Amino acid sequence: MKKSARALILTLTVLAATHPLGAQGFKAFELGARAAGLGGAFVARADDASAVFFNPAGLAFQPGFRFKFDISYNISNSTARALGSGMAYTNDSARFTGNPYIVFTVKDFISFGIGYFSANWMRTSWSDNTFGSLHGNISTVSSTYVRPVLAVKILRYLALGAGVDFVVARQAWDHDMIFTFEATSPGRILPALSRTSVEGEGVGFTAGWLFKPSDRFGFGGKVTSRVGIDLKGTTDFDSAGVFRSPPRGLATRAKMAIPEEIVVGLRALPLKNLAVHLDYQRIGMSGAMDWTFDVAPTVYDDIERLVGFRPDEAGFGADLVLRNTSRIMCGIEYVTGKAFAVRAGYSRQESSVDDDNLRLVFPDLAMDVLSLGVGYEGPFFDLANRDKKLGGLSVDASIQYGRSPGRTSKQPDFPAFFKGNRWSFGIGAGFVF
């Protein structure tokens, strides 16, 4: 018990100190190296502590005190080539993140767990963007979760799990804002660089189930609720051509929602050492963000005093329209001997925007992802006494490559041909005491 208490304190310290860095693309590749090697098809398996994220019901089948820590490094590249002019704009981003999970099982039928992770993110930073006045130069969306969960094995082969999501969401936008004066002075415009940053908190829930009649078959699913969040922050303006004293710290409001998700999947072993995994995910992106900001009217008063005309107050945003999307995931695993595994997977993520709404501010493209992974699972021993077993150890590594097929935007302000790719490298280590 003392060893478990010390391990819990150490793990909570790591949990509190871990923060994701950077972001790109409004979805994670995977939040666990074991799942990543299987293309993300993990809801019917969920056999390590990352089940806190993938399917909390899986925790009820995991005895003992468990700790899992996954880290990943993601590199994203995309281009937008303007039709007609042929000018190309590039967007490069790198992201490092860590996701810790803790699980404790009591009497082999009830389990508690907690996880910290960043499940949704997007960042664009376009180079040489002469169209920034219409589309924005830098845009960022991110959400960070703390999720405590409870799992109960109600039958020998059936478990249910549920948890609460405490979410912190952030949006940021740097762009060249255009003030128009069509109502008072037709044809007159004034540019100004704006920097907006808002954030807010919300609470949601997740629930899962897992049916495992044998070690050779599993069937499970997970539901995660939509979390509506009111965002508050500030906007700064900086343009000597418009303002003698640029307004700073203007109160700004926005809204967003973390989309609801439904995942179902199965796992089967057609051969003794070969497992097949298949998942389907539905993501409720519709209405998640409209990318509009309500800034304090002080800035409009300042412009009216400066130039003698009051600008139109509409259009502080990008009129983003999203649609529901889906994802298929499949993977295979071959276990060599008793401890080593080789994995491969494929997933297809559909886009949440149609051609009429494909913009630089949110260039969400469909993506095909190929995955490879390896893993080890076995005991670990006291270094001073090789005959003394301390517990179980698992180590997983994965690599993923995602490619977005070329696609042409029908946006009238900026028709362009978009394409992109991403690399993801992950490693995870888990311990059982």
Number of helices: 5
How much is the average pLDDT?
Answer: 85
Major sheet description: 14 strands, antiparallel, barrel
Integer-rounded radius of gyration: 24 Å
* CATH topology-level name: Porin
Percentage of helical residues? Answer: under 10%
CATH architecture: Beta Barrel
Low-confidence sequence ranges: 1-25, 131-136
| Major beta sheet, strand line-up | 1-2-3-4-5-6-7-10-11-13-14-15-16-17
Q: Please report the first level of CATH classification, the CATH class.
A: Mainly Beta
Shape: elongated
Count of structural domains: 1
Q: What is the beta-strand fraction? A: over 45%
Task: Describe the model.
This protein has helices spanning 2-17, 33-37, 51-54, 132-135, 298-307, and strands at 65-82, 88-106, 110-125, 138-155, 158-180, 189-214, 217-224, 227-238, 250-258, 261-271, 274-283, 294-295, 325-336, 340-349, 367-382, 385-408, 416-432. It has 433 residues and is mainly beta. It has a single domain (2-432), classed as Porin (Beta Barrel). Strands 1-2-3-4-5-6-7-10-11-13-14-15-16-17 form a 14-stranded antiparallel β-barrel. The protein starts with a helix and ends with a strand.
